Amino acid sequence: MEGVIQQFYLKSSILKTSLHIQSFCSFRFNKIILNGETVVAKEKGLSFSEFSKTVYKESGIAYPKFFKMDNLSKLTFLTAEVLLKNCALPSEEKEKMALVLSNRSASLDTDRKHQLSIQSKENFYPSPAVFVYTLPNIGMGEISIRHQIKGENAFFVFKEFNAKFLMQYSEALIHNKKASHVLCGWVDIEEDAYRSFMYLVSKRGTYIHSEAIINKEYQNI
Amino acid sequence: METLRQELKENIIEQLNLEDFTVDDIADDDRLFGDGLGLDSIDALELIVMLDKNYGIKLTDPKEGKEIFVSIAVLAEYIATHRTK
Amino acid sequence: MKRGVAITGMGIISAIGTNVEENMTALLFSKTGIGEISNITTRHQKDIKVGEVANTNSQIAKSLQLPENTIFSRSALLGSLAAKQALENAQIERISEYRTGLVSSTTVGGMDLTEKHYKTFQSNPETLKYLKSHPAGDSTQKIAEQLGITEFVTTISTACSSAANAIMLGARLIKAGKLDRVIVGGTDCLSKFTINGFKTLMILSNENCTPFDANRKGLNLGEAAAYLVLESEAVIKKANKKVLGYVSGYANANDAFHQTASSAEGEGAFLAMQKALKVANLQPEEIDYINAHGTATLNNDLSESVAIKRIFGDAVPDFSSTKALTGHTLAAAGAIEAVYSIVSLQEQCVFPNVNFKQPIPELNIPPAVKFQKKKVRHVMSNSFGFGGNCSSLIFSSE
């Protein structure tokens, strides 16, 4: 399927005025990379829960709701936190921002936990707090609440990271004046194997908004 | 009753992932929702599950929860009278 | 006038019928599909009501002429059936004739098979083959194979607004000239996973649900699939195709309030409706009917009513929720309600909001309670999902 999508885009690449990327941020292997620079590096042995808790504590954010989130939302939340702090947008810009995220495992990590809570006949207590997170877009909801982002939200499920798709989707949003900024990327987690990559597309910025650059930065961790 | 209150505080912190709180931070009369511990509607549902699981109390209407989940003191009182396990 | 994107075909299977005609008849006579659950064994059997599709998996597989031993989740089966109907309705014979895509939404995916075989995955590796159907994308891929679509295939999963977002993406792909034809819609089957999940949220009613009623007790889950065929102006002209209606407006916005609860002001819903009107270049008074999200939960119906009031003021058009007949079909809801919106345009009628008795006291805006014939040119369809994901679509007759 992926090969076909790639081809499809090659056939129809029409580019208008070029857009830019303000910042990139990735989380993987207990490291955080911001605009090519490693800003946090923790022991490889830490689980995602331990790693995310440490990052939360060290960042000095006071947002107790963080601890209630599932791991996919925690990953989404922290990546957006580091990225948006670096971009420092005024709140009226944030309100109009669009979110376009993607991954391959949807909410599988939390689905499993919910399934575990309903599979035992003797101990049948499905958790409402776990069930709420069995949708991949809940993480987008969490960052929308945190940053008061009210623009368009879309979550796509792909076999693998698809820079071209994300690129064209953000371009369409900005060119059709649906948004002035698009928070874009990939957030995927299955147990302790996690990987996030987010970037902010905007009319101005340090990097050119191109497939090659997005792919290069995605591979950077 | 004191033991039950203590147990409730521990359970609530654990079940609702209130990582920033310790048992000593929660007074018996603190409001659990709104300004107090800042719990929300999903937390109320988790508390309903906890009542069932730990004390054999089944609530079927979330509105009942509102009257019970006022504070640790009120909750402990309710559990002491209605518990089946 | 700025035209929207043409709809040339539709297909549907829901608790009130296995094709468009059956659904239409059920709507015209307010025939409900809500009843006791029969295809799934659950301890909640007596305390929930659902909108279940009567056909069993093997019946659907047979009608699709699937070879024996093929593994299709129920979402993939329902989706394949509805999508095939849509293609047939649009009289499409050769997919490869134009650049054709599929945008399908689901939230349940292959959960029905996973939960059935979960306990044996470790002890009996033979059952592991069912796990391949688990991902959301599997149902989309299966439907694409059934239709022979290879050009562009993707899945959207944004909770209960999923199908509305699939329709929005399809319309955009055509407007941007990237595709000539897109099959858009969604599919979700009932599963223990969703039944138990919604049960713990205490928003399932043990009776037939009563959207927008003052004494509403919660929702009934349902299962369904529906797809629309969207085609570009050029294809319509060249093939001289019959157009059923147009997707003229669409928008999505985030409520930015809570993971599951809607805000008291209905901010996300308000923004979605406002932006959809803007895209369609319409004034609020031009909307003749709103097919509301109307899940019959305390929270949604109040919040949605507030948002509707904010947009339409004292001139709220006829509105109703058809979920009282079909149940809430999650990622299929936006698609089946799109079909109903087009039926409203075709039949020039408004569907009643069944089971309604008393208006919500805070607002006092009652929904339409009687089936009525009237001039219908523009229909708004709302779909709001967990995560604050709110979408509004507008369908127009020309």
UniProtKB/TrEMBL annotation, chain B:
<dbReference type="InterPro" id="IPR036736">
    <property type="entry name" value="ACP-like_sf"/>
</dbReference>
<keyword id="KW-0596">Phosphopantetheine</keyword>
<dbReference type="InterPro" id="IPR006162">
    <property type="entry name" value="Ppantetheine_attach_site"/>
</dbReference>
<protein>
    <submittedName>
        <fullName>Acyl carrier protein</fullName>
    </submittedName>
</protein>
<feature type="domain" description="Carrier">
    <location>
        <begin position="1"/>
        <end position="83"/>
    </location>
</feature>
<dbReference type="Pfam" id="PF00550">
    <property type="entry name" value="PP-binding"/>
</dbReference>
<dbReference type="InterPro" id="IPR009081">
    <property type="entry name" value="PP-bd_ACP"/>
</dbReference>
<keyword id="KW-0597">Phosphoprotein</keyword>
TrEMBL record, chain C:
<protein>
    <submittedName>
        <fullName>Beta-ACP synthase</fullName>
    </submittedName>
</protein>
<dbReference type="InterPro" id="IPR016039">
    <property type="entry name" value="Thiolase-like"/>
</dbReference>
<dbReference type="GO" id="GO:0006633">
    <property type="term" value="P:fatty acid biosynthetic process"/>
</dbReference>
<dbReference type="InterPro" id="IPR014030">
    <property type="entry name" value="Ketoacyl_synth_N"/>
</dbReference>
<dbReference type="InterPro" id="IPR020841">
    <property type="entry name" value="PKS_Beta-ketoAc_synthase_dom"/>
</dbReference>
<dbReference type="InterPro" id="IPR000794">
    <property type="entry name" value="Beta-ketoacyl_synthase"/>
</dbReference>
<dbReference type="InterPro" id="IPR014031">
    <property type="entry name" value="Ketoacyl_synth_C"/>
</dbReference>
<dbReference type="GO" id="GO:0005829">
    <property type="term" value="C:cytosol"/>
</dbReference>
<feature type="domain" description="Ketosynthase family 3 (KS3)">
    <location>
        <begin position="2"/>
        <end position="397"/>
    </location>
</feature>
<dbReference type="GO" id="GO:0004315">
    <property type="term" value="F:3-oxoacyl-[acyl-carrier-protein] synthase activity"/>
</dbReference>
<keyword id="KW-0808">Transferase</keyword>
<dbReference type="Pfam" id="PF00109">
    <property type="entry name" value="ketoacyl-synt"/>
</dbReference>
<comment type="similarity">
    <text>Belongs to the thiolase-like superfamily. Beta-ketoacyl-ACP synthases family.</text>
</comment>
<dbReference type="Pfam" id="PF02801">
    <property type="entry name" value="Ketoacyl-synt_C"/>
</dbReference>
